[in-house]
Amino acid sequence: MAQLSPAQRTAGTARIVVAAGILFALEAAWRGSVARTVVAAAVLALGAGLLIFAKRAD
Q1: Helix (H) or strand (E) holding 11
Q2: Tens digits of per-residue pLDDT, 5-51?
């Protein structure tokens, strides 16, 4: 198995966090919960930040 660089591992984690944030945001919007939507937006922002960090690390 090929060894992944730290940036590749960070990007993989970020993709998972973004996917979870999208699902969380859809569920929050479906239920009409403002608080859950704000938390989902924070999760999406965290994932996006990790993706940016991984891109700069390469």
Answers
A1: helix 6-31
A2: 888 888 899 899 999 999 999 999 899 989 999 999 999 999 999 89
pTM of the model: 0.81
Contact 24, 40 (CB under 8 A): yes
Residues 6+ apart with CB under 8 A from 4: 12
Question: What's the distance, Cα to Cα, between the start and end of the chain in Å?
Answer: 20
The secondary structure of 21-45 as a DSSP string is: HHHHHHHHHHHT-HHHHHHHHHHHH
CB proximity list for 8: less than 8 A, separation 6 or greater: 54
CA–CA distance from 50 to each of 2, 4, 16, 24, 40 (Å)? Answer: 22, 16, 11, 18, 15
